[in-house]
């Protein structure tokens, strides 16, 4: 027999002035199954909550309805009060008679009538509520960080320094990402490798970090606290334990003319190589595609010169299955191929280069050892033109968004050029100078005022070769005049784009992308580092174009989320999940089609002798988020949603 | 003079968007007619056509189904399932003897308090014009075969 307590809150005058609470209270007292119905000025106050608790104990209530403000406001408050009085918190329901009644209606009589119906329908629902227990899931305290650029390294170090295990996976042979390619960094002009490489070494040597370079994520299964991840360790053909990193093999490799990816095709590398001199780990890989032995079956020079017998041509890819509690995705970005701008001549003229190529030219570790030299003839360019927004903010040919970092790095390039080529002249075509950030606007002003870069607000329409000069035709919109500059070199500030395989990778990990392929955060403002999938977090430029300070901040934010998650042994979740009745389930898998979370698993029902009778759906309580789509999909009415069962909803409707 | 007809409208809404939008209409102190009764669900994907039939059987003169905008579902896909289900159900309405105008399907986000208030006002007016929904109740009474649950 139901014994329901109904508590009607005046909320001061908010409800009391518009709804006749005394009439509501007496109407509820007459309702079947109601043991007690009382009104009070503020039920959310301490004495108000005490009233509820006292009533639960005195009347031995089996359910509670609080007619008050929205459940989004105080459901948690009253459920906690119920629990303190010994009543299962899920036997408490809130009738929303403030936001959806007293505040929006003017006629007192009709508002009271509506409040009576709302409260009545929830009394009917709560009669059918079941005692529910929060779901507890254990947490594997090991984090996976995907991507070994600055964001991934920062996240890994922060988590590891908090004493938690980290697996750091990088698909290239070395840590470093794009930051390792840069020369100097804005707005301080400190050398990128000088600040980056110590971090790389720290990550590699950290006792809590397991570093897996030249490795990729094959598969991610499971849910928050309990992911199962399969990692493919690509074969380096070099035994990491035996190799000492002496570099003899790299010196002696006869194949030396392979375009160097790290130097953005401005340099050459052999077939056995480390991407750059400070690579971490400092162990080479054999590029199978270009290696003479793999191509022709003859050579093995590297094996002959290796004193530790580290070269192994028989090596195979290895798979590693790991249990992981939380995942940080820090897979970074790529720059857009600018070949679609035929008018800029990228790919046609050797001296039209991208900003990233300019970084390599300006870098002390680059192909020119830090000298700004033209790729075509190795001469120092006396006039240089920088074209900003070569792809960004161009809905017709490029991308719609602003790539955020180009204004700053172009100013930096103009400065580096002025510092290295005395007497040279830098021209910059820009749309707007977007220099929001600590010390950023001062930095761009310095490029203009001290280093005398000529900034022109306007676009470039064409670049062509004439008498050995790159002729740049543009417009200065502030003067309202067309401009032609005879340049020796043109640098394009190309757009930042997601990794080319970002969409496929999102499917592997189980997170969402936006229209471009950048990964979606759970809430742009309030949950910027979480994804919609619990336990997976985002750091760096895989979420949107970002500079180094932003990437590092986001990585540390991810780390704090992961550490927070790992501070508990068990996770508690709302028990609003779908439950399947296995005796009536026919195994049609309609639910599996409907489920957005892959929570439906196949379960074998065996006879006593071990023969398969049928397969039924099992809903993984860790994965189920409780949307209830499968419930409505189920043909045999086998699935129901705890807290929102068919019976409860029908009762609620009948109570109206 | 007799009292004007006051329709009863039952709304099945998801808690993340439309319920929150209705709360926003309240906190913004917007005004709309008191004919609407909300049933809160986790997601529009949870809504079965049977709920709608049940509400009409109970005496509702109109039904509203409302959730998150396409692409905004908290559960990523639930509202798409609801939309597909509605498309199929719509084709069956004639067969069940329910005029299409009695049922409204809409998207209202948690930020659209004004849209919620406007929708309820116009929906109430439309249903008021249609008058009480007696045919369905009469039909069920005649056959004495209540909708099986």
Automatic annotation (TrEMBL), chain B:
Keyword Iron listed: yes
UniProt keyword terms in alphabetical order: Iron, Iron-sulfur, Metal-binding, Oxidoreductase
Domain (F420-non-reducing hydrogenase iron-sulfur subunit D): residue spans on this chain: 9-131
InterPro entries per the UniProt record, alphabetical: MvhD/FlpD (IPR003813)
One Gene Ontology term of the molecular function aspect: iron-sulfur cluster binding
Superkingdom in the source lineage: Bacteria
Pfam families xrefs: FlpD (PF02662)
Name of the protein in question: Heterodisulfide reductase subunit MvhD
Provenance organism: Chlorobium limicola
